[in-house]
Amino acid sequence: MEQKPYTLEEVKERTYKKRDAWWTVVLVDPVASRLVVPVANHTRITPNQISVLAFLVGIFSAYFFYLGDPTSLVTGAVLYHISFILDCMDGKVARLKGNGSVFGMWLDYMLDRVRVVITSFAMMAGQYVQTGEAIYFVLAFLIVFLDMLRYMDALQLYKLRREMRKKIRQAKRDARRTVDVEGIEGFEEGDGKDLQNTYEGVEEGASPVKRKVDLNNAFKKRFGWYLKLRDWLETRRIRPHLFSGIEYQMFIFILGPLSGMIKETVVASSVLLFIFELAIIYKMWLSTQDLNRELEELRREEPMLPSIHKEKELHQL
């Protein structure tokens, strides 16, 4: 049976993330989704091939950054944005066609990191040639360090969230309750609203008692105003973590060259990224305090199953 052509609406429905970086939502998705339609319908290009093409375009932009004159900087910025659009297309094609792979995820991640390293040093070496200021080499190392730190932090936060889920499940089993968990997911995005799972597993014949665990309680008490801002951003598909690794790259490799203020853009972007990373870490720390409190309360509660079984025995007598 012949595959029906993919439509733009289908691409949006099946490939758009529920929340994404504002740069992606505003400046990338509208272009990438329209390019995915002909690529998916009329070519056999794989997601991995698109990833490699995105990397090569990024390296080409690094060459122009190295040249360092105003015209070359603008050309490099345009090429870098095209590279990022292609980088978003590989994931969309994979989700649309279902032909993604674990290796493809690794390849995309590694090429992204290598692209940042090469582009950073190419741009800063070009500026050194143009100005003779050695500070640009320091900025190159700063960009690479913060980019790596951002993604290492994201990985560790993911592991921490997974460990928190394990603890909640174990506490549920001990208390023989179903548990609604709020606030475990989304810390990468500075959100914390994603997950509300009900964990089953109560023995047959027992009436499950829902026990809601809110791991955002401390944060909500301190920053209630943030919830309205979060909800407003989510209606526009924008994640509240407004300055992540994506915005960091785009500011440095697009806005900096276009404005001609590379040094100032790197410094300002680095400060913004560091502030937002601290905010995420602080929010996660608050959630761990909520987790400890909730686990302690669950441990104090008398398990429900024995009492239910006793009632059954009394009825049988």
Q: Any overview of this molecule?
A:
It is built from eleven helices and three strands. With 317 residues, it is mostly helical. It has a three-stranded mixed sheet, with helices on one face. Helix 4 (70-97) packs antiparallel against helix 9 (245-259), helix 6 (135-175) packs parallel to helix 10 and helix 9 (245-259) runs antiparallel to helix 10 (262-300). The radius of gyration is 24 Å and the shape is globular. Mean pLDDT is 85; it is low at 185-207 and 307-312. This is CDP-alcohol phosphatidyltransferase family protein. It comes from Salinithrix halophila.
Task: Describe the SSE topology.
Elements: H1 8-15, H2 22-42, H3 47-67, H4 70-97, H5 102-131, H6 135-175, E1 178-182, E2 196-199, E3 210-214, H7 217-222, H8 224-234, H9 245-259, H10 262-300, H11 304-316
Parallel strand pairs: 1-3
Antiparallel strand pairs: 1-2
Helix pairs in contact: 1-2, 1-4, 2-4, 3-4, 3-5, 4-9, 5-6, 6-10, 9-10
Summarize the structure.
The protein has 317 residues and is mainly alpha-helical. Helix content is 74%, strand content 4%. It has helices at residues 8-15, 22-42, 47-67, 70-97, 102-131, 135-175, 217-222, 224-234, 245-259, 262-300, 304-316; strands spanning 178-182, 196-199, 210-214.
How many structural domains in the coordinates?
2
Largest sheet: 3 strands, mixed
Rounded radius of gyration (Å): 24 Å
**Strand order, largest beta sheet:** 2-1-3
Question: What is the number of E strands?
Answer: 3
Average the pLDDT over all residues and give the rounded result: 85
Order of helices and strands: HHHHHHEEEHHHHH
* Distance between the ends: 64 Å
Transmembrane segments: 49-66, 134-152, 242-260, 266-285
Family: Belongs to the CDP-alcohol phosphatidyltransferase class-I family.
Organism: Salinithrix halophila
Pfam families: CDP-OH_P_transf (PF01066)
